[in-house]
Amino acid sequence: MRIYNNGLSSQATAYSVNIHAVWFDILLSMGRILAGILLCSSIAVMVGCGNEAGNSTGQSMHTRYQQTTNDALRQWCADCHAPPLPSAHPSTEWPSIVLRMQNHRVVDGLEPIPKQELDRIITYLQTRSN
Hints:
mainly alpha
């Protein structure tokens, strides 16, 4: 097997080989660093999504509250329209809007929203509005 060095001296060829070895080591180190970052990130996500004490489903109380409120919005609002986005109105307007919708339900002969559900929906919309 014949090796061509393209007219370079043996010192230049050795230098070229060393540069390639250095770059290979750098890339290998970067790969290890990235793998470490990925591993740590994965662990952090798994720990963050872990179960709370007494909660076998893995959902936080906030997540469960948000889900049940979203379910209430879908249940009560969907009789007439799509559930509203909290950002559609300022927080100060939500109580009167929800009470107006409650009035529409009653006038249209639909079941009124129970007081507890009504309060929860208003609070949910107010806390998430802009």
